Automatic annotation (TrEMBL):
One of its GO terms (molecular function) is phosphatidylinositol-4,5-bisphosphate binding. It comes from the Eukaryota. This is Exocyst subunit Exo70 family protein. GO terms for biological process: exocytosis; protein transport.
Length: 413
């Protein structure tokens, strides 16, 4: 037995019709694949006769052991040539992000080759050599493929156990999608009691990837709430965290069907909210909670209101422009739009109130407030606070304060 060459494996896959398909390396799931030749066809009948002869001679156990050990090591070599070896979570953790992403893409490709070509070929070979002896062929096939399958799945397990980060969820979802797509083929090729452990190993990986994706989103939600309130923009503009989460939710919608499968187990099943809706709402609520804390850091109350208005408005626009709008519903969007309008009204009231304060008697005789700082600079104390304030001082204060507040109002409106 010799390991199957990569060139032969690629020839067994259906041709791809576009450059994009080629780049993604995704074979057509509906295409009929030609299985690679593992052993020269001339020797298959001879091996079958030898298997029958071993029974007559009472040495069938030795024959079975030699066959399974030989095929097991050969299959391992084939996968090793493809770049598949046993991997630990520590090894994955130390890899650079770009290297890790490339390895995930390659792993998905190898998983497809193994499930669609290599394992079915091993099954077919066992069926031919041990024809009529179901217990033997199932045992040999399970034993010949078990170690290679574990080596193949170890990378997926390592990724699922490695340190979490918000962007990692998309890699996990890609892996979850591909393993789930292949699950029916795995069940078919590893049918029978002898292959029960192989089927269990494959299904366990699907569950681990789902749990890792779920945990990543939950951890991200918690990190949003805990994000430092000191990291606040000085001009009331949209915060980077708000724009990041808005885009994050948009990208999540590309995996909507997978996420619904992942979160359906955590749903209460009361018909009010699905698990995915609850998670998306939770992410948004975490951002809103964090924004409320950040808004309170502004010394200028009007600027804090403006900050909330801009950021909540950004969230609403992000949700409305993505498929998430169908999940959260029109009522949710309308409530948030009313909140934005309320902040806008409050901002105008507070900001214009400062302008009107400049015209009051107290405003004319007080020193210029902190709101004018950064626009006209500090003017110090002009004149006296006594009732003998001169007309020129009043004009100076009025011009400085009133114009400064109007400028400040227009800057952010």
């Amino acid at each position: 037995s010799k390991p199957v060459e990569l060139e032969q494996l690629l020839k067994c896959l259906p041709s791809r019709s576009s450059a994009k398909d080629s780049a993604e390396s995704q074979p057509n799931p509906g295409a009929v694949l030609s299985l690679p030749t593992l052993i020269d066809p001339r020797y298959v009948p001879r091996l079958s006769k030898l298997a029958q002869k071993s029974v007559q001679l009472g040495c069938h156990k030795q024959f079975v052991k030699i066959y399974r050990d030989t095929r097991s090591s050969t299959l391992e070599l084939t996968l090793k040539q493809l770049g598949v070896e046993y991997v630990t979570a520590e090894e994955v953790q130390t890899a650079q992000a770009e290297s890790r992403d490339a390895k995930i893409t390659h792993w998905i490709r190898c998983l497809q080759i193994a499930v669609k070509l290599l394992f079915p070929s091993e099954r077919a070979l066992c069926d031919q050599i041990f024809e009529g002896k179901h217990a033997w062929k199932d045992h040999c096939f399970a034993a010949a493929t078990s170690k290679s399958l574990l080596n193949l799945l170890s990378f997926g397990q390592a990724i699922s156990k490695s340190k979490t980060s918000p962007d990692k969820v998309f890699l996990l979802l890609d892996m979850f999608d591909r393993t789930l797509e292949l699950q029916s083929e795995v069940e078919a090729v590893f049918a029978g009691d002898e292959c029960a452990e192989n089927r269990k190993s494959a299904s366990t990986l699907v569950k681990c990837l789902a749990q890792a994706a779920k945990k990543t989103l939950i951890d991200f939600k918690d990190s949003i709430v805990k994000e430092s309130p000191k990291n606040t923009s000085t001009d009331g503009d949209v915060h980077p965290l708000t724009s990041y989460v808005g885009n994050y939710i948009k990208y999540l919608m590309d995996y909507q069907s997978s996420l619904k499968l992942i979160f359906q187990e955590s749903s209460n099943g009361d018909g009010t909210k699905s698990g995915l809706v609850s998670e998306i709402s939770g992410l948004i609520h975490a951002v809103e909670t964090n924004l409320d804390v950040k808004a309170k850091q502004y010394k200028d109350h009007a600027l804090g209101i403006l900050f909330l208005m801009n950021n909540i408005n950004y969230i609403v626009r992000s949700i409305r422009s993505s498929e998430a709008k169908d999940l959260v519903g029109d009522d949710w969007i309308q409530r948030r739009r009313r909140t934005v309008q309320q902040h806008a009204t409050q901002y105008k009231r507070v900001a214009w109130g400062k302008v009107l304060d400049c015209l009051s008697a107290q405003g004319l005789t007080s020193s210029v407030g902190s709101a004018t700082e950064g626009i006209a600079g500090s003017v110090g104390s002009i004149g006296s606070h006594s009732s003998t304030t001169s007309t020129s001082v009043i004009k100076a204060r009025l011009e400085l304060s009133f114009n400064a507040m109007c400028t400040l109002l227009c800057l952010f409106w």
